[in-house]
Design brief:
With 170 residues, the protein is mostly beta strands. The chain has one domain: Electron Transport, Fmn-binding Protein, Chain A (Pnp Oxidase, Chain A, Roll), CATH 2.30.110. Helices cover 14% and strands 41% of the residues. The chain has three helices and twelve strands. It has a seven-stranded antiparallel sheet with strand order 3-2-6-9-10-5-4. Strand 4 and strand 5 form a beta hairpin. It is globular and about 50 Å long. The mean pLDDT is 93. Keywords: Oxidoreductase. Belongs to the non-flavoprotein flavin reductase family.
Length: 170
């Protein structure tokens, strides 16, 4: 099998090109065995399979939350609405208790589901793949839900280094 050729671009060019792909924004949440809540912002979420129901997301290997997500059996992917930009920033930057004052409820697995999320996926931590400087997590969805008024609520989108939302084209 042939190997990939060395890149013919610098890391800044690669990052700029990746940044043109608009992605939804999620907060991935879990709970440690001792009950501590853990959550991180991620825009790397994607569907994998309908049967079985699988989704994926990735996390930097150097993330302080990596040991918890690698070891835990379950987590929740919370898809954020545009009105939840403060939650996005909180789970991306706040040190200490990111859940302080954040309204949430325990899902069927006891993992935190954020109030107001457009959609959520309660996942079994099915597989993990070490690739480059990230770990790809594949979750088997055990339960999911959609906010009742989701059709009337704008999603939070990240593209070209900034936050946006969507509107109909036609």
């Amino acid at each position: 099998m042939k190997r990939a050729k060395s890149p013919n671009f610098d890391p800044a060019a690669f990052r700029a090109a990746l940044g043109q792909f608009a992605t939804g924004v999620t907060v991935i949440t879990t709970r440690t065995d001792s009950g501590q809540l853990v959550g991180i912002t991620a825009s790397s979420f994607n569907s994998v399979s309908l049967n079985p129901p699988l989704v994926l997301w990735s996390l930097a290997t150097k993330s302080a939350s990596m040991p918890v997500f690698r070891a835990n059996s379950h987590y929740v992917v919370n898809v954020l609405a545009a009105s939840q930009i403060d939650l996005c920033r909180r789970f991306a930057t706040v040190k200490g208790d990111r859940f302080a004052g954040v309204s949430h409820a325990a899902g069927d697995t006891g993992m935190p589901v954020l109030d107001g999320a457009l959609a959520w996926f309660e996942c079994h931590n099915r597989s993990r793949y070490d690739e480059g400087d990230h770990v790809i997590f594949v979750g088997e969805v055990e339960r999911c839900g959609v906010r009742e008024d989701a059709g009337d609520v704008a999603p939070l989108v990240f593209q070209a280094g900034g936050f946006h939302t969507l509107g109909p084209i036609e």
